[in-house]
Specification:
The protein is mainly alpha-helical and 151 residues long. The protein has one domain. The chain contains eight helices and two strands; from the N terminus they run H-H-H-H-H-E-H-H-H-E. The protein is elongated.
């Protein structure tokens, strides 16, 4: 059976859907844990950009948010290869060599590598230019995203 690599637009669709279906609920959990006022404080990005802030952000908020997000995303990928957004876009994450389920280590590396794709920005656009349509985080983790019809 031929493999069809997921294109940029399908991947973007899955990503945007996941922002709402995973990102917002995680944010609400963080608000429940740390309180609404803590969410109004300066964020880490503002500090990194050198903006003047009245109160430094609590690093535990960022660590907790990243930790919960890691557990949720990697959990979905490990269980089915798909987050809700990827399922709706009919795509899934697999090992780039075997096209079978990616290992837990690959999936954790893939999640952590999103940071490099985000920082470089070009990392997210690599699928437009590469034959296997891999983003930087896929290249680092040895994964790829393919279309699926069994979703």
């Amino acid at each position: 059976m031929p493999v069809h690599y997921a294109g940029f637009w399908s991947r973007l669709l899955g990503f945007v859907i996941d922002i709402f279906m995973i990102g917002l609920p995680v944010t609400f959990v963080i608000m429940a844990i740390f309180g609404y006022e803590a969410m109004q404080e300066a964020n880490t990005l503002a500090v990194l950009q050198g903006e003047k802030v009245q109160k430094e952000p609590d690093p535990m908020i960022a660590i907790t948010q990243v930790g919960i997000s890691l557990l949720v995303y990697v959990g979905f990928w490990y269980r089915t290869g798909q987050t809700p957004g990827k399922k709706l876009a009919m795509i899934k994450v697999v090992d780039a060599k075997s096209f079978e389920a990616a290992s837990l280590v690959q999936l954790v590396v893939r999640f952590v590598s999103y940071f490099f794709s985000f920082v470089s920005l070009i990392g997210f656009f690599l699928p437009v230019f590469l034959p296997k349509k891999q983003a930087l985080h896929d290249l680092i983790s040895g994964t790829c995203v393919i279309y699926t019809t069994d979703s």
